Amino acid sequence: MKKFSLVFFAVFFLVLNVAGCVVSTTSTIETGDSCLNAGEHRCNNDVIENCILGTWRVFMDCGETGKKCEKTEVDGVLMATCVDDTGNSGNTGDTGNTGNTGNTGNTGNTGNTGNTGNTGNTGNTGDTGDTGNTGDTGDTGCSLKNDWLSPESGWTSYAYLRMMGKIVDYGDFEEAIFVNGRVALAERNIDMTLSDGVFHNYENQILIANAIDYDIFDTNQSAGTAKVEYFDMMIQFSKQLVPILIDTDINGSGFGEVDFGGFTWFRRSFLDLDVNFTTGQVTAQYMRKNCWYAISATEEIEEDGDVFDVPIGGIAGCFGNNVNGSTGETLNMMFRNKMTEDKATILEFLNTEPDGTVLEPGDEGFTPVCECFEKDGETEIDCSIYDGPGGPEPS
Questions:
Q1: pLDDT for 52-100, tens place per residue?
Q2: 234 to each of 199, 231, 292, 299, 304, how far by Cα in Å?
Q3: Contact, 340 vs 295, CB < 8 A?
Q4: Is 251 exposed, middle or buried (0-12, 13-18, 19+ CB in 10 A)?
Q5: How far, rounded to the nearest angstrom, does the alpha carbon of residue 29 sit from its chain's CA centroid?
Q6: Which of 212, 329, 338, 354 reaches 20 to 30 Å from 223, CA-CA?
Q7: pTM (two decimals)
Q8: CA angle centred on 356, ends 354 and 359, rounded to 5°
Q9: What per-residue confidence (pLDDT) applies to 13?
Q10: Calpha distance 142→125 (Å, rounded)
Q11: Which of 25-34, 65-74, 365-374 has the highest mean pLDDT?
Q12: What is d(CA 372, CA 387) in angstroms, rounded to the nearest whole number?
């Protein structure tokens, strides 16, 4: 049995708002109002609210950092962001009175104008040529429906993501303009949303949809430290899939779809941070605990006599304005996946080499489901006796 080649990534993009000692941890506070489009943002005075599971919830208070909330709309999606508050300009002093202008003398009478001769007849106007055809318009008729994201019957653990944003090279970061992600894991009793994300291009071969969420806690201004709980879902698919999705459009709307998912994994991590609270910059970060909770469930399919493992799920999107999924293009896509929390399956995924061999405990490069570290972020310790943020993990 063959497996698609996987590329393993371990990168954290921490974009944390700690300026002026303000750390927002109110993302789960409900405002009481209901909403329809998950992932949308709005301004409630200077507070940004996010639509999560049908309810507007506080996302960030711009006023805490001396900014104001400004709303905008991108491709029909309601967005909001914190911008500098320039304040009202002071009143302008009164302008002095201008002296009276002297009287102007009377103007003499103008003589009568002579009669104008008759105008000759105008010749017939020639026929106007046909107007040329207008070129095709992008995916103006394409719309993505949240119903598509719903898990199929029997999916006890699942993940989905709807995201729109520009593709950037791996290692760069440009926040997606719309993110609506969800992970539901039955065994871990997790049901959470992900509201930040980015599309990455890895070596012009692999595209990655990375959705994240985090919570900062235990901030200590005098010591210049804080801790962060970090959730990270990554969906990986071949860049060559974008032209294929473009070709699946049958009605000219730009909508494309395939009936298999992207390779998906979800992890939860805890980090210690060194923070300059004056500038709001994270100056250092130390990994304390990193656990892989779930990966995409797969099924075997046969093609031309070969058997492959492919993720169970689907990929869709609006591709009328795309060419081949290169850096700089904007993707507007949806993903859904059945997930598995089986530790043996996760271990096999983490430790499968490019040649198909699977590393065992004790082998160089072996990766456990959970890794725990001392405060230096480098010295590995047994997770069953770990006493850092997030607590111990059963063996």
A1: 545 566 666 777 677 788 876 544 456 677 677 775 544 444 444 544 5
A2: 10, 10, 12, 19, 30
A3: yes
A4: exposed
A5: 21
A6: 212
A7: 0.67
A8: 90
A9: 38
A10: 43
A11: 365-374
A12: 9
